[in-house]
Amino acid sequence: MKIPADLRYAESHEWVRVEDDGVVVGVTDFAQDEMGDIVFAELPTIGAEYEKGEGMAVIESVKAVSDIYAPIGGKVVAINESLNDSPELVNDDCYGEGWLVKLAPSNSEELNTLLSAAEYGTQLESEA
Amino acid sequence: MSPRKEFPLLMERGAPGRRAYLLPDLDVPAQPLKDLIPGEYLREEPAPIPELSELEVARHFVGLSRRNHGVDVGFYPLGSCTMKYNPKVNEDLASLAGFANLHPYQPEETVQGALQLMYELEQHLCEIAGLHRATLTPAAGAHGELTGLMLIKAYHHSLGQDERDEIIIPDAAHGTNPASAAMCGYKVVEVPSNERGGVSVKDLERLVGPKTAGLMLTNPNTLGLFDEEILAITDMVRAAGGLLYYDGANANAILGKCRPGDMGFDIVHFNLHKTFSTPHGGGGPGSGPIAVRDMLVPFLPTPVVEKREDRRASYFLDYDRPSAIGKIKGFYGNFLVMVRAYAYIRTMGPEGLRQASEDAVLSANYLMERLREFYHLPYPRICMHEFVLSASRQKALGVAAQDVAKRLLDYGIHAPTVYFPLIVEEALMIEPTETEPKAVLDEFIDIMAAIAKEAEESPEQLKTAPHYTVVGRLDETRAARHPVLRWRGAVEGDTTRDGR
Amino acid sequence: MGYPYLPLTPPERREMLSAIGVDSIADLFADIPQEISLKTDLNLPPALSESELVRHVQELADRNISLADYTSFLGAGVYQHLIPSAVPHLANRAEFVTAYTPYQAEISQGVLQATFEYQTLICQLTDMDVANASLYDGATALAEAALMSIAITGGNQVITFESLHPDYRAVVETYLQAVDAELVVAPTKQGLADIDALRPLLGKATAAVLLQQPNFFGLLEPAEEISALLEDTPTLFVACVNPISLGVLKPPGAYGADIVVGDGQPLGNPPAFGGPSFGFMAVKEKHVRRMPGRIVGQTQDQDGNRGFVLTLQTREQHIRRHRATSNICTNAAHSTVMGTVYLALLGKEGLREVANQCAQKAHFTQDQICRLPGWEMLFPGPFYHEFAVKPPVHWSKVNEALLGEGIIGGVPLAKVYPERKEWENALLFCVTEARTADEIEHLLQVLKEVK
User: Fold this and answer.
1) CATH number, span B356-476
2) Touching check for B484 and chain C: CB below 8 Å?
3) What pTM value is reported for the model?
4) Which tens digit of pLDDT belongs to each residue from B312-352?
5) What ipTM score was computed for the predicted complex, to two decimals?
6) Rounded mean pLDDT of chain C?
7) Residues C369 and C294 in one domain
8) CATH of the domain at C433
9) How many residue pairs bridge chain A and chain C with CB atoms within 8 Å of each other?
10) C415-446: buried (b, 16+ CB within 10 Å) or exposed (e) per residue?
11) B 442-461: CB under 8 A from C
């Protein structure tokens, strides 16, 4: 399982990357592997606001549906439109082209509540 | 085996101008259509329906039928679906002109036989359920569930208890249960199963209360187990003021052995297409009548068939029911399905129905006992009409329940229900029904044993199965990622084959 | 004593019990608490042999007068059309009839491909993007369309008109009540949707406007005007149509419908006392993931062979459970196979001709009836193959006289609109291609003499 060191993680298996104009959110390698072949991503509308822990997207495989929770609170400023035609990007490149949503954080402090790569790795080990 | 060959679509057959069916010539004076109906309402081009000869149509559909498995083709142990034999005479009876050619708006005096059949079927179903009245209108089990939940809602409303907005459903339940509850505006509260596969009474006790509108339960449940604590469960819900809904999907186990009404249930749906032998039709139509306890009778949907006790008994459709929940389907339900179920009940009689359930349970236990040598049996106790195995042993070898299922297809056997119930890992849910000869059961055991052996010796054989069907294992991921949901013409049709 | 569908013999039963390791059948039912275990037989009539059964059920059938015995001018949601012999012969192949939902695609290509063809045909008829594999019937399909509109828009109000089939209206009302949504019934003017009355009813909460075309009275509604009114609003336009009429009438896709539903009975299914039939639903592509029911899609196997599977299943109850788009599981698959075979036999020209003959014969009959003294149309608007007329005497006299002559007359509006006293003395006649000039002449003779 890849767990890039430069990202932050939520216990519910989302990752977060801080960029200049917001934070990018996706699902971890572990999550995409658990879900299997992803066939559809239902992403939020731009401008929608979510609190930390609120369901903001849904990812579907052939026979399962998974909720994606906002790792921190914020407003949606961009969504990954290319998933409409190529949902498989989430499987193929979950930390890159398979990103889901970009949020403008409502409270950047919340970033500090997320796990480091090492902490997330420990969580996965204890779940296994 | 012969190489696999694509079977053309209707739209890829025929030729412009070809006809299969000719109408009699118009025998009233013809007018230009535009003189009868203003042009703004007319279509500019005829709908591009394919044009074939009768023989082409016949070969097409006979060809399609040969690419399909059915109970008449081979064993169909699809758990929870009760794929029993569909008697032929019942098909003849349902196609009698005196039934098939009736219009729902005919005067009552011209449909007395139909109403009598409905009335008597209702009585029989009430007797089997141990309840008082029934509506035959719901078109399927899930439709019966929705109707039953509407009755629960109307009942609590009549008592001024609108705060009861929760329906309790076991974690092993059919997906239709929570979906029906949601369609009726209820919150779904899930109650876990205990280690013996029944409802956890301890947890139920914690979950029932003043918000409880009712409990939905299948008994025997989706593991094929009869809940030994059923009376404690129904008592507990009733004491809390909730109603009890019996999902009759598994009623084939209990005919003449015990009755949901006696277990304490207030509403029962039957799937006529499961328990009462009417054909499943490739997915429907079915029929899902619900029987109810007397206090719910005023709320039954309209119309209800009633009998006038005058000089000459006559039957009528009663719409004058002020407390009714309303109408839940056009007209009176799937009448021709009712004809078949009525014929089945009359053919079997009370002893025959009991024998059917006994044989269904016997066959299931026989299979379970013989198969547990080869597959993990998560709940090792006497089952009812079906049981659930787990392919967990095979999974350890890299072979999934899905692979076992696909390999069965190579032997001309429909796979069990897989990956359900959700509480069993790699579930294989097997329901043989009472209509299979012992030789078929024995053959199935041998094949399942051979597949278990293959899992150990040549797992690739399973993972690439099926090998002898008209198409190989189909790519469901591709279908869902890039949906092609209709034919769009030769050129575009071709491009979809190379991946859009 | 044996039963025809129970193959196990007493020695086989004993052998099986012993393999299980129990002594008797009773041991298998030991989990049933003693106090509820039945000690006596169910109170049901005794078993019948096949020939006894046939005699008994035939007797019940003979207590009915069927449309094969009498000439019928009934419509109002169920229609008598000519059904080619090949329809039941082909659709009733045991492999179709005795299968269930095609969960195992590789041995269910017959039903799956037929459904894919059906979906294509429904799209071609309605001029829409995507169709599902079927719902129970027209009324429940309309109710599902209303629920779907609520899910898409977030509104909790649905508007329809008094010209919608009253049974359909009642079903939609029951479904909406369950989720605390409101059905508003807008008035009609001369039997047609009153657009001026609609306008002020529309609001942010309006999830959909439901329009039947042709409507219950057989009249052609101003669908395009209503569609135009809803353009640029979030409110969805739901059209409920008769599939045969689409042989000549403008398809709903051409007048901007978002969701199209209807009852498929007219396509090769017998009247069947109102069921089974099938409900069809077709939508614009963007709504497909909100659609209820099964959907079949095209895919391929590992060698690139074309095949068909159930797809987009995450919408459905067996996966999404309480968050599913609907609770529907069993649908009306076999009735759709009948419809598909019917359309395949009729073909492009045949369907147009059936639709045209219905219009021709209905208009001829209407014209002739209205030439009779005292008979007049209830509403003046253009119609398709049904029309409501007011007789010069009480409607019951008309239908009694007709019945005495072996004719089943029109549907009395008094029975379906009991609250509308001004429509009380009117009959809704339907004339399809199945009626002959002689039968129409016979009808007119009786009407002429009725007093």
Assistant:
1) 3.90.1150.10
2) yes
3) 0.97
4) 779 999 999 999 999 999 999 999 999 999 999 999 999 99
5) 0.98
6) 97
7) no
8) 3.90.1150.10
9) 17
10) ebbeeeeebbbbbbbbbbbbbeeebbebbeeb
11) none
